[in-house]
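Exam prep: given the inputs below (a chain plus iron/sulfur cluster), describe the expected output before reading on.
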Amino acid sequence: MEIADRIKQLKKEKNAVIMAHYYVPGEVQAVADYIGDSYYLSKVAEELKERIIVFCGVSFMGESAKLLSPNKKVLMPDRCADCPMAHMADRETIRKMREAYDDLAVVCYINSTAELKQYADVCVTSANAVKIVKALPQKYIFFIPDRNLARYVAEQAPEKTFVYNEGFCPVHEEIRPEEVLAEQERHPGALILAHPECRKEVLERSDYVGSTSGILRYVSQSDGREFIVCTEEGVSYKLRQDNPEKTFYFPKTVPVCTDMKLNTLEKLLRVLEHEDNEVHVPESLQQEAVEPLKKMLELAK
Ligand code: 13P
Ligand code: SF4
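Solution:
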C-alpha cells in the first residue's frame, strides 16, 4: 500500500486529523485535512473534534494547537522542527520595557515559544497583526520577536509608537533585494509578492505584502499572469494547484525553511503508527500562555 493511503487509513482508524502549514513539502500538504497559514490553523485547532491532531509545521505551531485544544493528543512528525525566530526575545527585556513605559502592550507574534507568550498581552499573526494592534488601547507597542513584521505593522498603524526587538526569520531575511530585482528584470511583467517577514528593501519593491494565505488570495483574484514570490517555496504547491495557468518565480537563492521540510511523509506515517512525539506544554505556563492566543482570536474576528 502507498504511504499516502496508509496514512489515510490510520487517520480514520485512530480518529486523527492532519494539519499542515503551507511551507511543508507538497506531498505532506496533499494528505492534510487542513492546510493554511498560522492564523487559519490556530482558528481551526480550537474547534476540532478528533482525538489526535498531527501538526505538520514547527514547534510553536504544535504548542499553540495544544494550548488551544488542551484535551487533544497533539503529535508532530519531527519534534526537532523548530522556528529559530520563536526564541529571539527574552523575559528580562520584556520586564524592562514594562517598567520603562506605562502605557505599553507587549504584542507577541505567534512565531514564539509558549514560554514567551506567557508574558504577552496579545498574540498576532502576519494575517491579523495590523487589525489587532490598531484595536489595542495602549499607545506604546513592544512587538516581539520579529523586527521586520513590527516595522511593517508600525507603518500601517502610525498612531502607535513601536519599540522594536531584534528578532528575525532567517529564511525571509535572506531574501536579497538585488535577487528580487534581477528576477524582475528577467520577467518585467511579473508582480512581486512578499511576506512581511522580509526586509524593508524587499517590501518597498513589492506589489503586494501579506501572509501566506493573503498571497494566495491575491494571486487568485489578480489578472496578472506572472509572479515573483518572496516567501518560503512551499507556498508554490498551493499557488500552482489553484492557478495552473499562472507562472511563479522565486529569487535565485530559493527561500527554504529547513525546519518546515523536516515534515516528511515517512515521518508523518511513523508518528501516526506510534503516537509518539507528543507536544506537552508545562502546566505552570499553560493558563498564561493561552490567554494572549485567545485574545488574538477574539480581536481578529
Ligand atoms: P504565516 O503563516 O502567518 O504566513 O507566517 C509565515 C511563517 O513564517 C510561519 O512560520
Ligand atoms: Fe520560522 Fe522563518 Fe521557518 Fe517560518 S519560515 S518557521 S518564521 S524560520
